[in-house]
Amino acid sequence: GESVGLHLPTLSVQEGDNSIINCAYSNSASDYFIWYKQESGKGPQFIIDIRSNMDKRQGQRVTVLLNKTVKHLSLQIAATQPGDSAVYFCAENGVTGGGNKLTFGTGTQLKVEL
Amino acid sequence: GAGVSQSPSNKVTEKGKDVELRCDPISGHTALYWYRQRLGQGLEFLIYFQGNSAPDKSGLPSDRFSAERTGESVSTLTIQRTQQEDSAVYLCASSLDGNTDTQYFGPGTRLTVL
After folding, report:
1. In degrees rounded to 5, what are phi and psi of residue A17?
2. Helices vs strands, H then E, count in chain A
3. Which of B33, B71, B27 is nearest to B52 (CA)?
4. Which of A102, A113, B108, B110 has its CA at a distance of 20 to 30 angstroms from the CA of residue B43?
5. What is the mean predicted confidence (pLDDT) over A24-35?
6. Chain A: which residues have CB within 8 Å of chain B?
7. pLDDT tens across A40-70, in order?
8. Residue (of A35, A93, A36, A57) closest to B31 by Cα position
9. What pLDDT score was predicted for residue B102?
10. Residues of B with CB below 8 A from A44's CB?
C-alpha cells in the first residue's frame, strides 16, 4: 500500500553543523511534498514544500531535495541551531489539485547538541 | 491574520462520555482538515471539508466519530462514547481552497480518556 516513511527516528547533530533528514515515499502518483516541524506540545509548522516537477527548492537555511527515481525526499538544515530541535515530518499529497489528505511519515526527532 | 485555533487545548474525560472539539480555521480558508496524532506517531487523516460539505470522510475510525462545519468556518469534531484508544492529540488544519495543497495547522486538542 501507500506509505511515507523515514529512515532515522532520531538524529543528533552538533550546533552549527548541517542536518539531513530523509524520507522515502511509495506513491508514484504523488506530485506534492511538504516538510513540517513539530515542537513539543504544538501543532506542525510548515517549513518548505516542493512539487514533483522540481528537484530542489531552497528556503531560509533549509533545502528540500526530491529524487523521483528512487522516491526519496530529504530536508537539509544549514547551520543547525538549538531552536531547530523538534520532530520533523514529511508528507505527501498523491493527487494534483489539493483538497486531499496528506499522508505523513512517522517523524524524525532532531536533537541539537551544544 | 490569526492562525488556526482549536479549543479546548486539553480535555480529560471518562470512558463512555461524549466530547466535542472545536476548530477555527484561518479566515477565508475554505478547506478544513482533521487529523489524529497518537503519542510518538505521525498524523492520521480523519476528514476533509470543502466549504460545509465533507467529500472525504475516509479516515474516520468508527461511527462514534462525526464532524460538521457551518458557515464555511468553524468545525466541530464529535466523539461519542469515548474509549481509551481515542486518547490522542486531535489536530485541525486549513488551506486556502481545495486546489491549494499547503495546510496550516492549529495547536491541537489533547484528549485523554480515563
Report:
1. -75, 165
2. 0, 11
3. B71
4. A113
5. 87
6. 32, 34, 36, 41-46, 49, 89, 91, 93, 97-107
7. 889 999 999 999 999 999 999 999 999 999 9
8. A93
9. 85
10. 43, 91, 105
